[in-house]
Structures are given as C-alpha cells and as structure tokens.
Amino acid sequence: MMRNLAVLAVSLVLAAPAHAADPVIGSWKTQPDDNGHFGFVDVEPCGAEICGTLVHAFDNSGNEIASGAVGRKIIWDMQPAGGGKYGNGQIWSPDRDKTYASKMALSGDTLKVSGCVLGLCRSQTWTRGK
After folding, report:
1. How far is CA 41 from CA 5, 52, 108, 122, in A?
2. CATH number of residue 35's parent domain
3. pLDDT (mean) for 86-111
C-alpha cells in the first residue's frame, strides 16, 4: 500500500506541467507607453502556453487609473523555447490598440517583450513586480 502511494505521488509530480515552475510566471511592471502610462501584468500558465493579464494601470504620475484594458489578456499563445526565451505568441498594446506577433526574453528580473505587425516592431523592458 505504501509503495502504491509513493508511486502515485511521484507520478503526480512528473505529470505536472513543465512550465509550472517557469521563472517568467509572476507580476511584471511594464515600461511606460507613449502616454507615460504603465501597468502591472500577471503572467501565468494557460494550458501548455504562457499568457498575461493587465491587472493594474497607472498614469504618468504613478496614480492608479481606471482603464478598460484592466482585466484584459494582453499576452497569449506564448510558448516557452528554453533558456529564458519565449516565442510564437501575441501581445496587445493598449495605447495603440494593436496586436503584435510577439516574443519575450527573460534575464533575471527583467523581461524584454517585443512584437511586430506589418514590419513595424516595438519592444519594452519590463521589471519584476514586488
């Protein structure tokens, strides 16, 4: 009986999604946009992929503001590629209301997020939230 429980416990651990402990998971402070506004994005697993939801928005003075973008998924379909790299995702930019083909690169407590649409590319460096 104990052996069966041990086998079951090991099986459950091995069956957990590989990205469950992915270091990109967490809260990220965005770089200010063209208006000086910034936000916090909660990055989390979405099935086998990574997604992110805008959870707070702030004006250029650091005051929290109401925004229709809060609560909206702004990163989706992001696929871990190993070595802190992620790709084949999409990112929505609230300040321009555009969706970009996106990739991300994690380095310590910074996350470089970039995206392109019709040959026009943008990038930001986000910092890990507290």
Report:
1. 39, 6, 17, 18
2. 2.40.128.520
3. 96
